[in-house]
Amino acid sequence: MKGKLLIVFNSAHGYVKRYVDILGNALGCDAVPADKLRGDMLGGYDKILYIGSVRGGTLGGYKKIADYLDVIYKKFILCGVGLLPFRKERAERVKSVAVSVAYEKFVPAFYVQGGFDLDELSRTEKMSISMIVRQLKSASVIDEDGTYFLNAMNTPVDEVKQANIQPLIDYLDDKTVDPELYSPPEIIDPEEEKQFFEEMEKAASAPENKKRALKKKLKGK
Question: Which of 96, 89, 78 is nearest to 8 (CA)?
Fold first, then answer.
């Protein structure tokens, strides 16, 4: 791997931490829990990976690093770990939920399946889960993801393995990765980056009606 890598992570129930250990063994990098992160830790690294648990459509602990994104976005990589099996749209969803419009086109994002065990959850987490279960059971049609989720309530899931995170290992190791296995960055050319931020500045200073149109354009650029 070229350059130094720092992994910043948030592990709610241990699945993320196990993936961090796999990454560390494969790449020989440094790692720090999100709640121990300080801004002065970020300057000495060429790549910074944030990996956290996906719960209820959010990425656990991510706010701790979000404030530094304007400085690190060019070397930032994102990964969410969730209960459901991999699909590319899950990686895209992790990016769209976590990263602001200003930077999401520069950030590669990954998603890997982790695990779930109802007995590991806190009382508050179990209450939130029970609401989701009730909603699913009351639905007229339950899709594939919903069925998988309901089955996991009775049978714990543990899919932490190197094969699941190998595309991320390869990416961090500067190898070519199939774009169907993650959400690639959309802007890597310096001229395109300059144009993008010029349009962002126009959007920020435009009247409200033009501002909405410009932001919509930037979203779909």
Answer: 78
Q: Which residues contact 33 (CB under 8 A, 6 or more apart)?
A: 8, 9, 10, 11
The H or E element spanning position 164 is helix 162-172
What is the C-alpha separation between 84 and 145, in angstroms, rounded?
Answer: 7
Condensed to tens digits (0 to 9), the pLDDT of residues 48-93 reads 999 999 987 789 889 989 989 999 999 999 999 999 999 999 999 9
- Spatial CB neighbours of 35, under 8 Å, sequence gap ≥ 6: 10, 61, 64
Q: Where are the beta strands (DSSP E) in 47-187?
A: 47-55, 58-59, 76-82, 109-113, 115-116, 157-158
What is the identity of the amino acid at 218? L
Residue 49 identity (one-letter amino acid)? L
Q: Which residues, including other chains, have CB under 8 Å from residue 66's CB and lie 6 or more apart? A: 98
CA distances in angstroms from 149 to 7, 109, 134, 158, 211, listed in the order given: 29, 23, 12, 13, 40
| Residue 79: other Cβ atoms inside 10 A | 28
